[in-house]
Specification:
Blueprint (H helix, E strand, L loop, with lengths): L8 E4 L7 H10 L3 E4 L7 H14 L4 E4 L1 E3 L2 E2 L19 H18 L3 E2 L21 H17 L3 E7 L15 E2 L3 H8 L1 H8 L4 E4 L3 E2 L12 H9 L5 E6 L11 H10 L4 E4 L21
Parallel strand pairs: 1-2, 1-12, 2-3, 3-6, 6-7, 7-9, 8-10, 9-11, 11-12
Antiparallel strand pairs: 4-5
Helix pairs in contact: 3-4, 4-6
């Protein structure tokens, strides 16, 4: 594994067992972090022990989880899981902040360091609708900023997602590649508004998504698009930009892992998510210059 990839991957684990093979992988890959799914633990007590064990292998690891709220959580019980964002669309921002504060404090007790939330998409696409704070850009922006504040106050780092906006499409990007003809002006005047609020709230991370936004880049989905990454930078975002899970990017199964990872990094992403738990790519010699993104 090239040194250039160290601290640039987030990997998933196959189950709850921390085997010698996993330890060797972590020592070899030196990932940015480990992401947890319900397959990785049977109780919060077990998760806490697993995190402690992993931290003893690499004390610089980040520990990530999706606790967006409602049905999109890995730990469903309170206070770990906030309410469904759609149900919070009419809440005062201060109440949204408190909900994410409580969740963040509980997750921090387990050793989690990053919550991959809040969703900054608009609820204009049917796939993402229930995971959002609604359809109105200004209302969503207020609640995104509040969630970021709550997560941060609770001791975790938030991640605003999914840029440039999954509300522009109706398809689950893990099942098929969404495409949209939405004009750039509409993205700027609507879908970018919550992300601007996230930037103003000093969110340290943002996540792109697997979507082909033809008005911005007609060749590359956001995962591999330097044009889309550059828009985030031009908006003033100076933190780390994550990909969505490239292991489950529909249509890319025939592309070797090393090429998917290299293409995402060459597009300007700082961290690539590979969440499947099948981390055989660590045996490959990944060349960061092998696959170039089209500008």
């Amino acid at each position: 594994m090239n040194d250039i990839l160290q601290k640039k991957l987030v990997i998933g684990l196959p189950d709850s067992a921390i085997t010698d093979y996993i330890i060797r992988n972590i020592e070899k890959i030196r990932p940015f972090g480990i992401i947890f799914f319900s397959r990785n633990f049977h109780s919060t007590e077990e998760l806490k022990k697993i995190i402690s064990q992993l931290r003893s292998i690499d004390g610089n690891l980040e520990f990530l989880i999706d606790q967006e709220g409602g049905e999109k959580c890995r730990i469903f019980k309170k206070p770990y899981c906030p309410p469904l964002p759609l149900d919070m669309r009419k809440w005062k921002p201060s109440a949204v902040e408190e909900a994410f504060l409580s969740s963040s404090e509980a997750l921090a007790e387990l050793g989690i360091t990053i919550n991959l939330a809040p969703v900054a998409d608009l609820g204009t696409g049917e796939y993402i609708r229930r995971r959002t704070f609604g359809k109105n850009p200004e209302d969503v922006a207020e609640r995104v900023a509040a969630a970021i504040c709550g997560i941060s106050r609770g001791g975790l780092k938030p991640c605003a997602k999914h840029f440039p906006g999954l509300g522009s499409a109706d398809i689950d990007p893990h099942k098929s590649l969404p495409e949209t003809d939405m004009p750039l002006e509409e993205f700027e005047n609507k879908h970018f508004i919550p992300f601007r609020a996230a930037i103003e709230a000093k969110c340290p991370f943002t996540m792109t998504t697997h979507i082909l936004a033809k008005s911005i880049d007609g060749k590359n989905p956001a995962t591999y698009s330097r044009k889309i990454v550059n828009i985030l930078r031009d908006m003033g975002f100076s933190g780390k930009i994550f990909t969505d899970d490239v292991a489950e990017m529909k249509g890319a199964e025939i592309i070797p892992a090393r090429k998917r990872i290299s293409a995402a990094l060459n597009a300007g992403h700082d961290v690539v998510l590979w969440c499947s738990g099948k981390n055989n790519f660590c045996e490959e010699n990944i060349n960061n210059n092998e696959e170039k993104s089209t500008d």
